[in-house]
Each structure stands twice: as structure tokens, then as C-alpha cells.
Specification:
By secondary structure, this protein is of the alpha/beta class. Helices cover 24% and strands 17% of the residues. The chain starts with 34 loop residues before the first helix and ends with a helix. This is PIN-domain and Zn ribbon.
Length: 289
């Protein structure tokens, strides 16, 4: 019996036909082998989504465990968003019972428990939504939420909107100005650049306004008619004598209080339109409590 096998010379083939790399002494890849297939094996992950995150799932997947396979290089962010849930809606991810960031990779047999923001529990630094600025009542809205933008301005909130802004522009503004991006498009919230966003569930603008106030706990921040509903500029009182001549004389005689947007110059007074807006504002405030 031979106790030692003869080592083949570099670059040559042994009796078993194993060709070795002349540089590292490692098995050389055979023709047809895929480096991706070898280095990124498939792993199975089990998900469980809680509370409002189920809004993004089809009915047959809600409130139950979901199993899916991914490449081993897949991040938790990409894995979760592949099921339809934007990362901006998520406050906490537990990987096998331990907090994990979006950058973590999936592993074989992993169990992911995914939670939305907590209204009554402060999870502090564990929250994936922490450290994103303190001014939570500055917004930028997508092209489908124009009426909601006007209602938020009517309530005194800083709400940027334009019907010709692209998704890239919206994501950039949200990132650079640390604004909450409001949208009805989950795909827009999945952009990596968007760190603060919210998917508006309601479809009717009045109820959308109530939803946003509740979600961001803005009841104490409401300042009715503090902003121009046309351009988002701040509104300040203006004496009659300083107003331009475009205001009809009968309005100057009938009303004593006038207000002007500091940005676009639009003049406001307490006419019939003001009474209608007051009714709407009071309704929204009452529903938000």
C-alpha cells in the first residue's frame, strides 16, 4: 500500500483527471460552469409581515408566513421589496429574532419578522426610520395628489407639488430637502434615494388629508390658512392701502381684513370661498381626532 500519492506538476493533470490552476493550485472551472451560480446559491427565507404592511400583499398572503427563495447575495431591502412592501413603510426587521438593517444579506432558513412604525411604542435606535430629520411636517407630493397638496397647505403645512415633476425629481427633492414623499405609487417609495416616504391609502382627498394628519400626528401643528394654496408660500396680513389696484373697489369696501402670499403675491380675503374652506378645515380637524 502506498502511503503517499504523487503530486502532479503545476498545470498538469493527475490520475483522477483534476486539472489545477497554475497560479493558485485550485480546481479550474470547467467549460459551462457559471461563477454566479457557484457564488450566489439559492436560499429559502420565511417572512411574516405585521399590521398595515399587509396592505401591500395580495389577500391570500396576508397575516400568514410567506416562503420565498433568493440568491444569497440579496439584501433584506431587496428581498422585502420584491414582495411589494416599500422600505419607507418599515420601522423594524427582526432576522431570526434579532434587529437587522436593510443592508444585511438573506441566509438559508432565515425567519424575517417585519413591522411598520409603532405609534404607542418608542423603539428608539432600533427603528429603521430613525435619524431622518426632525421636521416631519414638510412634504413633497407626486403628480396624482394635487388636491391633497392644496388641502395640506390650507391646513398650514409645507407641501411642495407640481404636476410635471418626474419620479426622479421627486426622489431627489425628498432626499436633498429631507421631505416626506407622499404618493399612491409603491414603486416610487422603493427607490434607494427615498428615505422618508408614505403610501397614502385613501383615494378621496378629504380622507387623504385626515390620514396624513393621523399618520404623522399633526393635530397640534395645524395652522389654518397659513399658506397659499396656489404656491405654498406663507400668507401675511396686508393693510388696504398697500394693496395693488387690481382688487375691485367693492371688495375693499366690503371687507376689512386682507392677506397676501409672500411668494406669488396673491391676495386673500374672508369672502364666500373662505367660509367654504373653513367648513372643510373644521371637518378634517374633527375627523383627525
Amino acid at each position: 500500500m502506498h502511503l503517499f500519492a504523487k503530486v502532479p506538476a503545476k498545470g498538469k493533470t493527475s490520475r483522477r483527471g483534476m486539472r489545477r490552476s497554475t497560479r493558485f493550485g485550485l480546481p479550474m472551472m470547467k467549460r459551462g460552469d457559471s461563477p454566479t451560480r457557484q457564488s450566489d446559491e439559492r436560499v429559502e427565507v420565511t417572512f411574516r409581515f405585521y399590521s398595515t404592511l399587509n396592505d401591500f400583499l395580495p389577500p391570500w398572503q396576508r397575516q400568514k408566513e410567506i416562503r420565498k427563495k433568493f440568491g444569497s447575495h440579496t439584501s433584506l431591502k431587496d428581498a422585502i421589496e420584491s414582495l411589494g412592501i416599500p422600505h419607507t413603510e418599515i420601522a423594524l426587521v427582526l432576522l431570526n429574532g434579532f434587529p437587522a438593517g436593510f443592508e444585511h444579506k438573506v441566509v438559508e432558513g432565515a425567519r424575517l419578522s417585519v413591522y411598520p412604525s409603532f405609534k404607542s411604542i418608542d423603539i428608539g435606535e432600533l427603528s429603521l426610520q430613525s435619524g431622518k430629520g426632525t421636521v416631519l411636517f414638510q412634504f413633497v407630493l407626486d403628480v396624482h395628489l394635487g388636491t391633497l397638496a392644496r388641502y395640506l397647505r390650507m391646513l398650514g403645512f409645507d407641501a411642495l407639488y407640481s404636476n410635471d415633476w418626474t419620479d426622479e425629481k421627486l426622489a431627489e427633492m425628498s432626499f436633498l430637502e429631507q421631505r416626506v414623499l407622499l404618493t399612491r405609487d409603491p414603486g416610487l417609495l422603493k427607490r434607494k434615494k427615498v428615505t422618508r416616504g408614505y403610501f397614502v391609502r385613501a383615494t378621496e382627498p378629504r380622507f387623504q388629508a385626515v390620514e396624513v394628519i393621523r399618520e404623522f400626528q399633526l393635530k397640534e401643528k395645524i395652522m389654518p390658512f397659513g399658506r397659499c394654496i396656489s404656491c405654498n408660500g406663507l400668507i401675511q396680513p396686508i393693510p388696504k392701502e398697500k394693496m395693488n389696484t387690481e382688487i375691485p373697489p367693492q371688495f375693499k369696501q366690503r371687507h376689512s381684513a386682507f392677506f397676501q402670499c409672500q411668494n406669488c403675491g396673491k391676495i386673500y380675503w374672508m369672502g364666500s370661498h373662505y367660509r367654504k374652506m373653513t367648513i372643510l378645515v373644521n371637518w378634517i380637524i374633527a375627523q383627525a381626532y
